Amino acid sequence: MTQRWLGRRGMREYHSRVLLCLVMRSSVAQSSSGPQRDTRARILDAALACFAEAGYEQTTIARIRERSGVSNGALFHHFPTKEAIVDALYVDAIESFQQGLWELLQTRSRSLRAALGGAISHQLRWIEQNQDRARFLYMRGHLDWDSPASAQLQELNRSLAQAYREWMAPLVERGQIRPMSMLMLNAIVTGPVHAIAGRWLAGQLHSPLYAYADELADAAAAALSGTPASSRRHPRSLASQGRIRLELVSDDGSVIANGEATAELLPRSAA
């Protein structure tokens, strides 16, 4: 994988492209405002709520129309099928998430660890703040490759991946990142985040999702750079309860009865 140093002029050009992309995205969002945008948003919000409550299979397009409060004509003007609603929800969610990544690229983090920390923290915060959207994305998995929405999603991903390649180029040249494909880099950085987020959304983890940000960023930085991550020392928590096993023994040494009990453990100073 051949990379080149962008230089100051190249960095200015790259920075301008990121700003231009953000301005264009903002202009598109503003131009689509108004009654048409409101109707579309109401339909998508209603669909997301229905999918969260009943799942995709059990949700009918009639139920979405009823919950959104729009007419049949208005709904089918925007979305001819339930699948079209699902595709639009998927692309909108990904675009919402990627907007934060574009903003992070604009800040120009100077180190690999700082950039990874920012990207992973953004992903965790986005999931915490958009739990129904995140559950929907994990439930859906991916779009059908031959759908119009898939082509739109591929273009979003292609633009972002190119911006990250250009940001990574100096780090690769300086040896801070091992040369690798974007596919591998994405798997290394986001794979563990998805694994933890999936368990958190399922209610299997009780710590705040953001609490895992530092360890995930350390692990990703170590994998991309090939340098072992420094260990983080966590204070050992003291047990608050203990289990006691009791045996009732006769004079000849045989066990007559036994049992277990749980007792609260107090600090030495409180004993």
- Quickly name the level 1 CATH class of the domain at 89-225: Mainly Alpha
Q: Alpha-carbon distance between the termini?
A: 65 Å
Number of strands: 2
Shape: flat
Q: Helix/strand-derived class? A: mainly alpha
Q: Specify the number of helices.
A: 10
Rg on CA atoms, Å: 26 Å
What is the residue-mean pLDDT, rounded to a whole number?
Answer: 80
Strand order in the largest sheet: 1-2
CATH topology of the domain at 89-225: Tetracycline Repressor, domain 2
Low-pLDDT runs of 5+ residues are 1-32
Strand content: 5-15%
- The helix fraction, in percent, is 55-70%
The main pleated sheet reads as: 2 strands, antiparallel
Fourth CATH level, the homologous superfamily of the domain at 89-225: Tetracycline Repressor, domain 2
Q: What is the succession of H and E elements?
A: HHHHHHHHHHEE
Give the second-level CATH assignment, the architecture of the domain at 89-225.
Orthogonal Bundle
Q: Can you describe this structure?
A:
By secondary structure, the protein is mostly helical. The chain has a domain at 89-225: Tetracycline Repressor, domain 2 (Orthogonal Bundle). It contains ten helices and two strands, in the order H-H-H-H-H-H-H-H-H-H-E-E. It has helices at 7-31, 35-54, 61-68, 72-78, 82-107, 112-129, 131-140, 148-173, 182-201, 213-225, and strands at residues 241-249, 255-264. A hairpin with a 5-residue loop joins strand 1 (241-249) and strand 2.
Which properties best describe this structure?
2 strands; single chain; Tetracycline Repressor, domain 2; 10 helices; flat; mainly alpha
